Structures are given as structure tokens and as C-alpha cells.
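Hypothesis: this fold can be encoded by more than one sequence.
Test: take the C-alpha cells below, design a sequence, compare later.
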């Protein structure tokens, strides 16, 4: 193995194609199976540690599996809560024993959670190990907590769960996993809260920082008390199970709330500065392709909605759901592949440039789908058919090189939930490539809680993101650390001053707090706040 790796390094392959060809040649010569990238990477790192070869970042990049995972500037780490009773009775949700409602035991994220006995500590640790082993440098973590309606979980469990996630990030590679203390909450809620604060404080200076935290819940469980708790936990983004902005469709599918709750939840989330993600389900009972397209257009033209991100989950029939019974009885028929593809093409045409499409399909294995879309790589298939759009994901720079001469700052203004949103973007001169952006909100009065009333008179930076390959702090400069973030932030401050705001607040992930403190921002009730001088 060492001899083969030394030969690979000596040959200096410059592309995946060259590396693959070299692997095949060496496998034939040594009469072995073609080596996996992860095996080569492991051996390469050992040789570097022994000073037998020099570290080569370009070579490491070639070995990195699914590089797209960190080309958005962060390393997404999904963790699943253990099964709890769900307050919903939705027709489309499967119910499987010992698995959270709406999830299936053979979904990749669920399988990881089951292997780790739903321990948040072990899930984070094992995911970081997996990313490390495949050549990624997961030092900027976007923690995504899934498992259904977060809001109904016991308070002590929620605080403990997030505390354990931070503890895993803080201790990764520094200590042996303490399995004994990673199983379930211990102590009372006040002790757990103190432990969480301690781990959050550590994470501000940890090597593996949690710079974003996402929670998912139902729109009818969003209120000020819930959002204050989410801020205590360090959350920066909330995913809402919206499904459809139509009362009749929601009622037919036994969702348990109407469009008014979606609108109210979105407004409250924006008032607190959260980024908002909608889960949308085309093809639900009661819908048609024409109706779905109308509703899709509505969420981007009606100021009550305007999500920042969407997950597009075409309805599928799975066993264990009420929808399965309807389908067996002939009361429901899913869209054909052609109808769904045409719908996606039309929907992509109307997505605004300030929206990111996170997913085009949920990660449900084909063998679990009884009826409906069976194409598990739908995004790639649609791209091959020319279904492109101007959304953030389609334009982000990824591996493209950046030059300060090729950057233009653009400002897109739109109304949402009673306030004005500014999408400040750093684009290429032709507008086809996005290097970074800032979401700035100029709010209306909306928060009643005394501790957070200062947000009513503050401009709010809801997101600041520079795209490109994830670059650890102090690492080699690519798109990140090129000064773009500061430039976008200054533009947000300028707009805020021009609109007579005295303060600007940032909803920041715990691990990103240090970045804003460098520019004069100070902590206030979980936000980074800066006074604006005239």
C-alpha cells in the first residue's frame, strides 16, 4: 500500500481522470483491487506524518469524496432526535416503530442515528470522522437537527441534545469519546442550561466551530417564547413544514393548521432574524400540477411568505401512511414522471435570485417508495435536461477562481412580512456567478418581549455567507477570507444608516461570533449588536 501511494504521489495526477487511470494501472500491476480514495487518503496522511512525503493540498482535493458537500463554504452535519410522539396526523407521513414520525429506518441520516443509538454526541462525532476520512476539512459546521416537530420535545431533552452536539464539536480530535455521559440527559434543566452555555462559550474559540444551527418544526408551534428558546440554543435557521399555501389542500391532508399560521410563523421568524426554509410538497391529494405551479409562484409574490430557502419534496406513497391506504383504495394517484419533470422546469423559472433550493427530492430509498417519483438523483437528471434557474445554489462559485476586478456588488430589495429585505450580493460582472451575499432586514415593530424589543429598532443581518470551498481559519485563501464578508457587511451598515437606524444586529451562529466582534459588534441577548454613527 505504501509503495503504491508513493508512486501515485510521485506521478502528481492533475485530475480525477488521471488519478483513476493511474489507480487502474497500479491495481493491474500489483494484482489487487482498485484502491478507494479514502484508503489512499489514509495512507497518504500517514506518510505525511512520518515526513516521508510533503503535504500537497491539490492532491488532497483530488481524493476528496463528493467535494460539493463543502463547496458552499460549510460542512453540513445532520443529526436526528430520538422518536417522540408527533402532534400531527398528516396523511402523507409514514409511521414506523422506533423511528421519528415521517422518517424511515433505511434513510441514510436515520441509519446513522440508529447506529449511534440516537446519541447527539456520537452522531456529530461520527459524521465529522466520516467527512475527515473522505478528505473534507469540517471546521465550519452547519448543524442540522431533524426528527420532526422540535417544538414539542421536552425542554430538558432539547437543551441537553444541543449541548451534546456542541460538546462533540469542541472535543473532536482532542479526547477519547466519553460514551458513558453521552446517552441521556442528567441533572435538572438549570444544570443543563449552564452546561450548554459553557460548551457554547468554548465553541467560539474551538477548532471545529458550529457556525449555523438549524431546527425543524411546524408553523403552528412558532411563537415568541419558542423563538426565544431557539435563540438560547444558538439556532440561526428554522425549517417549516409548509407543504402547500392552500387551506383546502392542507385540510384534505389533515395538516392541522391553515395558511394563516404559515404567514404568522414566517413573520415572527423574520422579526427575530432567523433564516426561513420552507418544505414544499407538490402532488399532494387535492392538488394538480397547474395548482402547484400557481402556489409556487405565490410564495415568491405574496409578501406574507418569501422564504429564503426551499426544499422541494414531491409527494411519494410509503407504507405506514394514511396516503398509502388512499392509494390502495384508488383514491389517490401521484404525478407521472413527465408531469413532475415539467412542473419542476416551470417552477425553476420563477425562483428569485435571493432563494436557495436546498433539495429537489427527499433522501428516501427507492425500495421504500410504493408509488410516485422513483428517481433519487432528480436534481442531476433535471440539470441534464436543461432545467436550470437563477437560484443561489445554481450560481454559487464553488471551485471557480475569484478576482477583485471581477466582482460587482448588487442590491435587490423586496417586501416581506411587513418589512423590507435587502439581498446584497457579490456577483461576477456577467451576473452568472455568486461569490457571497448578505441578507439585511429593515423591520417594522413586531416583538413584544422586553428583552428583545431592541430588535424592533435595529436593522438585522439575517445571513452573511461567502461561497466557495470551505477554508479553515488561517487556511489558504480561496473565495473565503478574501475580504468579501467585511465588504458586504459594510454595505449593510451603510443601508441601515441611510434608513436612520441607530443600531444593526446580527443573528450569528455561536462559532461565528468572533468574526463579528472583530468589526466592533458586541453581544446583547444572544445577538451581535453595533451602534451606527452618522
Amino acid at each position: 500500500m505504501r509503495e503504491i501511494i508513493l508512486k501515485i504521489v510521485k506521478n502528481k495526477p492533475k485530475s480525477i481522470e488521471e488519478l483513476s487511470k493511474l489507480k487502474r494501472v497500479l491495481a493491474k500491476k500489483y494484482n489487487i483491487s482498485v484502491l478507494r480514495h479514502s484508503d489512499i487518503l489514509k495512507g497518504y496522511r500517514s506518510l505525511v506524518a512520518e515526513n516521508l512525503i510533503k503535504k500537497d493540498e491539490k492532491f488532497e482535493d483530488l481524493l476528496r469524496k463528493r467535494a460539493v458537500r463543502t463547496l458552499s463554504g460549510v460542512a453540513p452535519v445532520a443529526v436526528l432526535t430520538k422518536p417522540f410522539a408527533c402532534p400531527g396526523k398528516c396523511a402523507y407521513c409514514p409511521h414506523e416503530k422506533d423511528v421519528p414520525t415521517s422518517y424511515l429506518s433505511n434513510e441514510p441520516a436515520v441509519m446513522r442515528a440508529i447506529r449511534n443509538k440516537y446519541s447527539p454526541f456520537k452522531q456529530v462525532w461520527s459524521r465529522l470522522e466520516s467527512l475527515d476520512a473522505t478528505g473534507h476539512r469540517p471546521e465550519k459546521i452547519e448543524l442540522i437537527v431533524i426528527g420532526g416537530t422540535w417544538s414539542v420535545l421536552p425542554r430538558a431533552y432539547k437543551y441537553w441534545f444541543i449541548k451534546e452536539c456542541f460538546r462533540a464539536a469542541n472535543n473532536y480530535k482532542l479526547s477519547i469519546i466519553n460514551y458513558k455521559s453521552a446517552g441521556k440527559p442528567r441533572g435538572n434543566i438549570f444544570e443543563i442550561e449552564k452546561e450548554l452555555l459553557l460548551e457554547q462559550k468554548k465553541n467560539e474559540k474551538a477548532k471545529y466551530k458550529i457556525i449555523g444551527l438549524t431546527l425543524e418544526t411546524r408553523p403552528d408551534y412558532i411563537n415568541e417564547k419558542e423563538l426565544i428558546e431557539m435563540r438560547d440554543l444558538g439556532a440561526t435557521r428554522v425549517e417549516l413544514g409548509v407543504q402547500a399555501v392552500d387551506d383546502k389542500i392542507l385540510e384534505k391532508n389533515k395538516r392541522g393548521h391553515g395558511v394563516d399560521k404559515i404567514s404568522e410563523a414566517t413573520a415572527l421568524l423574520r422579526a427575530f432574524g432567523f433564516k426561513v426554509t420552507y418544505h414544499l410538497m407538490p402532488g399532494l391529494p387535492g392538488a394538480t400540477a397547474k395548482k402547484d405551479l400557481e402556489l409556487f409562484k405565490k410564495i415568491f409574490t405574496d409578501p406574507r411568505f418569501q422564504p429564503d430557502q426551499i426544499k422541494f419534496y414531491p409527494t411519494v406513497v410509503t407504507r405506514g401512511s394514511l396516503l398509502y391506504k388512499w392509494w390502495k383504495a384508488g383514491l389517490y394517484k401521484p404525478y407521472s414522471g413527465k408531469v413532475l419533470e415539467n412542473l419542476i422546469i416551470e417552477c425553476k423559472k420563477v425562483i428569485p435570485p435571493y432563494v436557495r433550493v436546498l433539495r429537489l427530492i427527499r433522501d428516501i430509498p427507492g425500495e421504500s417508495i410504493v408509488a410516485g417519483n422513483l428517481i433519487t438523483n432528480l436534481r442531476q437528471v433535471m440539470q441534464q435536461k436543461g432545467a436550470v434557474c437563477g437560484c443561489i445554489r445554481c450560481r454559487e462559485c464553488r471551485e471557480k477562481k475569484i478576482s477583485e476586478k471581477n466582482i460587482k456588488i448588487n442590491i435587490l430589495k423586496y417586501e416581506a412580512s411587513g418589512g423590507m429585505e435587502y439581498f446584497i450580493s457579490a456577483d461576477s460582472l456577467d451576473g452568472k456567478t455568486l461569490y457571497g451575499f448578505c441578507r439585511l432586514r429593515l423591520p417594522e415593530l413586531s416583538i413584544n418581549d422586553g428583552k428583545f424589543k431592541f430588535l424592533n429598532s435595529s436593522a438585522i443581518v439575517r445571513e452573511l455567507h461567502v461561497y466557495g470551498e470551505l477554508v479553515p481559519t488561517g487556511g489558504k485563501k480561496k473565495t473565503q477570507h478574501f475580504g468579501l464578508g467585511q465588504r458586504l457587511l459594510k454595505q449593510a451598515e451603510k443601508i441601515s444608516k441611510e434608513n436612520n437606524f441607530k443600531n444593526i444586529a446580527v443573528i450569528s451562529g455561536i462559532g461565528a461570533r468572533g468574526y463579528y466582534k472583530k468589526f466592533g459588534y458586541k453581544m446583547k441577548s444572544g445577538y451581535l449588536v453595533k451602534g451606527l454613527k452618522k
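The mean pLDDT is 88. The radius of gyration is 24 Å.
Hypothesis status: open.
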